[in-house]
Write a structure and sequence with these properties.
Layout lengths: L2 E5 L3 H17 L6 E7 L1 H12 L2 E5 L2 E5 L5 H18 L2 H10 L11 H12 L13 E8 L5 E6 L4 E5 L3 E4 L5 H8 L9 E4 L4 E6 L1 H4 L7 E2 L4 E2 L7 E6 L15 H30 L4 E5 L21 H8 L10 H5 L1
Parallel strand pairs: 1-2, 1-13, 2-5, 13-14
Antiparallel strand pairs: 3-4, 5-6, 5-10, 6-7, 7-8, 9-10, 11-12
Helix pairs in contact: 1-2, 1-3, 2-3, 2-6, 4-5, 5-6
Length: 341
Amino acid sequence: MKIALALSGGGHRAAAFHLGILKFLAEKNLLEKVTDISSTSGGSILVAQIFHNSAAIKPSPGSFRSVLAWPGSEVFLAKVLPLCKHQITQLSLENNFIKRMLCPANWLKFGHRANLMARVLEKYWFITSPIQELPKQPSWVINGTTNLSGEHWRVVHDANKNVIGSDDIGFTDSSNFSIADAVAISAAYPGVIGPYRFKTADKIVYLSDGGLYDNLGLEPVFDLEKQKIRQGIEADFLIVSDASKGISHKRLAPFWRPLLRTLRLIDVINQQVRSLRLRTLLPFLKHNPQQGMYLAIGSAPTLANLPDSLFDYEFLSEIDIERAKNTATSLASLSESEFDN
């Protein structure tokens, strides 16, 4: 078995949910089987965390250097999971981002504040390496969206190439591009963190959260048109981890609160994009259960298409499941109980 992971957005709620699924894989000694990853927003930040928290310190001429790695199952459980939990519960990205934005020197950067989030990731979570220092495997696609055309923007790393761009604008080498900047693009949610300003030799492109195009991070690993795992990736088993909060029933904000109105409409659009992708994915998984699974936050275990091995675990109560689903979409620190649930 070779596993592809599609990790959705959803801030730290998504990170905690994805870590639970990765913990299950590690306990079954399956993390070593992961060959392909596609991530969006909070899922992208988590993957960057995992690579950096798995890093080994190795000697180099005159000093030492950090070598990024995808963790084996034992290392994940003993080292990486506790480090990720500490960062998510104790080191608030949101608070440190706000502090940076309040600094007068950064006021002119308000129109591209996702660039500041990249610096926060570097300083407080030590996500400091360029794309070229990622291990050859697993491959990793970091998903974003172009503001220019709404097209799928992505940073692609695999054994053969490191590129960044979109089909309509074109691609360029991303070997020296910072991982922190790549995931800041993926998490550049409009009105909150985004957009991100990407400069090329002859133009400036503004980029936003990958969830605007595909919050599931599905497209790089699943061919929606052919309804099968995408040709060209190594994996033959797809795990889609969906921590999307969905959309609740509530009234549109009053006209004097235009930002809340805009964010609500973005949520409506995102829900439709997600639904359209699921209408293709779920029938595929129903008819090909040996090729993957879809795990969604908020789903009762009895209603989900789960492998028998998952039923060895004690599940949350329905109240706790609903509470986990309704955790805010943000990069503020989670409490210990929010993380564990």
